[in-house]
Amino acid sequence: MPFQIIRNDITRVKADAIVNTANPKPRIGRGTDSAIYAAAGEEQLLAERRKIGEIAPGQAVSTDAFKLDAKYIIHTVGPAWVDGAHGERDILHSCYERSLALAAKLKCESIAFPLIASGVYGFPKDEALNIALAEIGKFLLTHEMKVVLVVFDCKALELSEKLVGGIEQYIDEHLAHVLRKAEYGGDYASNNRRREAARLKEAGEHLLHGMKAPSEESAEHAADEMLPTIGGLPDVSGKSLDEVLGVAGETFQQRLFRLIDASGMDDVTVYKKANIDRKVFSRIRCKTDYKPKKKTAVAFAVALELDLSTTLDLLSRAEIAFSPSSRFDLIITYFITNRIYDIYEINAALFKYGQPILGE
Q1: The one catalytic residue among 9, 16, 33, 266
Q2: Which of 13, 28, 128, 347 has an alpha carbon within 20 to 30 A of 250's alpha carbon?
Q3: The domain 3-156: what is its CATH number?
């Protein structure tokens, strides 16, 4: 897939370009800079850096990668966080923008980034992540390149408190509903959903971007809507098996491309918004009986900004269902219900919660 988030040591990642959070002066710094010098060969890399001289914050330059499994090291100088009022965000945007532009100029097919400035430079990790995803997403809309964001572990990837709170509350409420219903049955679940609906209506804290709290009726039925759906199966009463099989509905591929046509978007925009490789998309277009993985099918639903009902119908045509006990399914439902369709933001949340990210 064009964009990935992985847990690894960046010095062990294979890519055409490895991005180094460089010291502005030609000397070995701390953190990622020190690790990259050690892995690439300190003497050789330092000699190359001395030829370049000082690098201004937000700029990007390249050297040979020496012993790294890469062609180039792209050195960019991130901002040291003061208080956010000293141009730190603009500098960080520039780091990603210029590094990606340089990789394109060098004809790289892949590039690996650390989360720039979020370590010893003290840039808030949630904001650093948002800027990284924004610049990578903007770049990939107009370029064909594999971009990898490398972090040590899930904890290193911080989401905003508002987003984390919303997701965790959504998961907890729906999983609790499933357990209550299994143990106590419908009446208990229904009565408790009504009480929970009243509480959510009053609080409204788990929704994002200024959305209104759900009505009592919508909150009451929210969990039941997560139960497995059979999609648009026809009424088969009074029909023979031959008659039923003779009116089979659209395949996943047929429904997908009808939805793409209806969206007004061209193919390139759709597969880029879905984090799908161009070659994979071409195979899908040519294969009527294509059966996607769940993460691929959901990626298309996100790219097309489908509502939950249409998403479940599309997935059912690939024999894929959502489960009210799946954290992956609940996270996706949370974002779609709240009409948040930024696939990079969704993928960051999926990674944070240990789930597979969207795309193919």
Answers
A1: 33
A2: 347
A3: 3.40.220.10
Residue 275, sorted as left (phi over 0), alpha (psi -120 to 50) or beta, turns out to be left
| Cβ partners under 8 Å of residue 185, min gap 6 | none
Q: Which two tokens stand for residue 301?
A: 């639903």
What SS3 state is found at 304? coil
Q: Report the relative pairing of strands 110-113 and 17-21 from DSSP bridges.
A: parallel
Extents of the domains making up the chain? 3-156, 161-225, 249-352
Global confidence as pTM: 0.78
Parallel, antiparallel, or unpaired for β 17-21 and 72-76? parallel
Catalytic annotation on 16? no
What is the maximal distance between C-alpha atoms in the chain?
83
CA torsion sign for 336, 342, 344, 345 is negative
Q: How far apart are the C-alpha atoms of 140 and 350, rounded to whole Å?
A: 20
Structure tokens at 67: 């012993």
Pairing of strands 110-113, 72-76: unpaired
- CA-nearest of 65, 143, 134 to 96 is 134
